[in-house]
Design brief:
Elements (H helix, E strand, L loop, with lengths): L1 H13 L15 H10 L6 H13 L13 H36 L4 H15 L2 H15 L16 H35 L2 H8 L4 H38 L5 H10 L3 H29 L7 H5 L1
Length: 306
């Protein structure tokens, strides 16, 4: 995490443009620009700025926004519920759809559902998220008028139907794009496990096909599926930025885009740092969950066995 923070800080330092010049008029006097640079701590060397930022970070302070003067912690916390809501429903639906279709397609390779899942997966992967979002807006908002173009109903709103109408299209885009990888990996691993000898023995003993696939085959095929399932958090972060921008969803994705456009580097740095923490926690979670599913992959197992 320390190395990641250094890299991100240096990349923002090397980014073109001066954040102070984005806040003043072109004819601003040099004295005003110098005062603002001193106010934001931009008049000191980059290593001093990094140490100052890291010191405040260890205290739980992500700094203050250049453009609004508000604490970055507060700005992120205000946008976090919208992003969590969108990500939570998308992860839930994509997991159910991806694993269910992948398991059924793996049980019956070559069937109509299997071929349809392969073709639809290729189509969804080939279509960019922003284009799919704009297509949904054009059809369901502009042409049919069924759904709002964008925005989000406040969480305290009592209109459940209205909240669903605002959430539906961005959730569909993320759900479709995230379920494809999960479906493909589930299908491939189920087919690979189904061709092993223990499956043929279990079926020869008279066990039900559904029980063999659900209890035995899927358990052994679940390890790479779990890895893909958790690593979707990394892809979801990038997808949320695109989808939130298309649908004007007031989450961390739109906050990141606004901060980049305004050269509000403390906000950008805070969001990227939280993203990095999420990725590292996801990686750690993968190791723990995989070890729980299959004890053979636990650290030191092979060494102990030898």
């Amino acid at each position: 995490m320390f190395v990641f923070s250094i890299i991100v800080f240096l990349l923002l330092y090397l980014a073109p443009g001066d954040p102070v010049m984005a806040l003043v008029t072109p004819d601003a006097p040099a004295e005003t620009i110098a005062l603002m640079r001193e106010k934001f701590g931009l008049n000191v060397p980059v290593h001093v700025r990094f140490v100052n930022w890291l010191t405040e970070l260890l205290k739980g302070n992500l700094g203050f926004s250049y453009s609004t003067g508000r604490p970055v912690n507060e700005m992120i916390l205000n946008r976090l519920p919208a992003t969590v809501e969108l990500m939570g429903w998308s992860i839930l639906f994509s997991t159910i759809i991806g694993i269910s279709i992948g398991l059924y397609a793996g049980m019956k390779p070559g069937s109509a559902i299997d071929r349809a899942s392969i073709i639809s997966g290729i189509v969804i992967v080939s279509v960019p998220q922003f284009f799919l979002g704009l297509l949904l807006i054009y059809v369901f908002s502009i042409k049919l008028g069924w759904l709002p173009i964008g925005g989000r109903t406040p969480i305290e709103s009592t209109g459940l139907l209205n909240r669903i109408r605002h959430l539906l299209m961005p959730c569909i885009v993320l759900t479709l794009t995230m379920s494809v990888d999960l479906m493909r990996y589930t299908r491939a691993n189920v087919i690979a496990e189904a061709n092993k000898s223990y499956v043929r023995v279990a079926l020869a003993k008279g066990l039900k096909v559904s029980r063999v696939f659900l209890v035995h085959v899927f358990r052994n095929a679940a390890i790479p599926v779990v890895v893909v399932l958790i690593l979707r958090l990394v892809r979801l972060v990038g997808g949320v930025v695109v989808v939130e921008s298309v649908f004007s969803w007031p989450g961390m994705g739109t906050l990141l885009v606004e901060a980049i456009q305004n050269r509000d580097y403390p906000v950008v740095l805070g969001i990227l740092f939280i993203t990095g923490v999420t990725v590292l926690l996801a990686s750690l979670t993968i190791d723990i969950v995989v070890a729980m599913i299959n004890p053979k992959v636990r650290l030191g197992y092979e060494t102990t066995k030898k």
